[in-house]
Amino acid sequence: MSKALKHDRNDHEGAALAALLRAAPPPTPAPTGASVVLAFPQRAASGAGDLPPPAPGLRARLVQGRAAVEALCRRVELAPDLASDIGSRTWWRGLATMLGLGATALAFCPDFTRVEAAAAMPLGPREREEFRSQSIAPLAYGAGSGRRMGATPRVHPLAGVPERPAIQLVSTLAQGDSLAQMLERSGLGAGDAARVAQLVAQAVPAGELAPGTPFDITLGRRPQAGAPRALESLDFRARFDLDLAIRRQAGALVLERRPIAVDATPLRIRGNVGAGLYRSARNAGAPVAAIQSYLRAVDKYLSLESDLKPGDAFDMIVSYRRSAKGERQVGELLYAGVEQGGKPRLQLVRWGKDGQMVPAGAVGQARSVPVGQPVAGRITSPYGARRHPILGYVRMHAGIDFGAAYGSPIHAVAEGVVTFAGRHGGHGNYVRLQHGGGLATGYGHMSRIAVRGGTRVRAGQVIGYVGSTGLSTGPHLHFEAYRGGRTINPAKIAIVARPQIDGRERDAFKARLRALLAVAPGAALAPLAPEQGPGQGLGQGPGQGGGEQPRREIDKLAD
Known about the structure:
This protein is of the alpha+beta class. The chain is 23% helix and 27% strand. It is built from 10 helices and 25 strands. The strands form 5 sheets. Strands 13, 16, 17, 18, 19, 20, 21, 22, 23 and 24 form a 10-stranded antiparallel sheet that branches. It is flat, with a radius of gyration of 48 Å.
């Protein structure tokens, strides 16, 4: 028995002794000099001559039982604090009490089964059928709408029913579908479908119709019973600057061209670099695709982390087209510039058949360009001697390892010719490129190769994907550089790029640069055409027939 239980028992015995003293009659004062004897009440011994005590009633027995339970609860603590005296008898007794109460609660917990209940009113077959006929339910469950009657002798079948005089529908050109097949599925006859395709080909080549183009079709009456409906009209958007309509006039189909006024002023966006180039460009309203193209172009010549300062200015120009109907089209990046201290630091112009971004300061002359990073990742092992993770001894690491996710694209750091593409010993899947000036680069441990030997690749082209083939402990790219057949540190190489513009194109390139720099920022957002009066606003393009538009009553009062 623990010390706590002993103290509790002593306390209870002391309390019981005090109660007996309070219940005992006061002692009779004894004469002086006599000894004092305290008489405590004793339980009467039941002898042969004693009378039996009266039998207690039900109420008395309940009181006595309750007192016994209360005494037990005072003596034994059934619900102690389980956070103290962990492992003692008192703690185990409290744990048993908690588990017992929890089991009792779960035993009396009701389940969630459905309770069958009788209907408020018994329904016969006729009543159920009546309710079913007037209810709303899916057709698959045998629903009916309203009462139905069987046919009587007065009901005669119809020999024919009148058709709708015209049907209007919208059909969409699917990927890989032809215009004639789409029209025939929409209900046109083979003759009308072929005639429509012939008329449309006179205005727009069939290959230029973009998949997903909607066609508003109106079909008229049938020329005879069982024949396809005749085409009454067909309207669709053939190009960004052209609407086409086909109408039936005097029994023949006629093509109507409706040109749409389009403004092709480029969109120029300027601003300060601030805390971040991307966020500053987005706050200036630049499209996400244009910002990504701008960052890729500038990153080849400037470091986005160290060369750009918060006070520098960015300048980008993208192709932009607006139609008189309100549509907008954002095209590719045309110009990318960086200004430092109010002077141009970098000017790139899209030029040539390949659409490369050419720096304005290197027109007609060769230039040395530092190579970029071949894959999006971090350097996990630099160039130099190291302990090989698989072989276990120190040897020369003739390249740089870039840790990247499996399947990440690998880009060529410069223009070159593929001299090897295949399996290459410990390099696994390996690609080697030969650049100008006796410089070559190698890319190892690829999961898949995307080029073939002997082909020419341009800078930034995907040549493979990150893997873990060969002697590799995980997905990464092993990047090497060679000069004269010997390995060198890839972090210190630069590519001498040949001139991208010769002397004959120099004047045209400079004229293009001057034309782009002459575009004012926000000029592409100006109104497309000035208001010319009621009913001739921006929504009216050439060939759309402006006409008089309904005027509001408030405008009439103003006159």
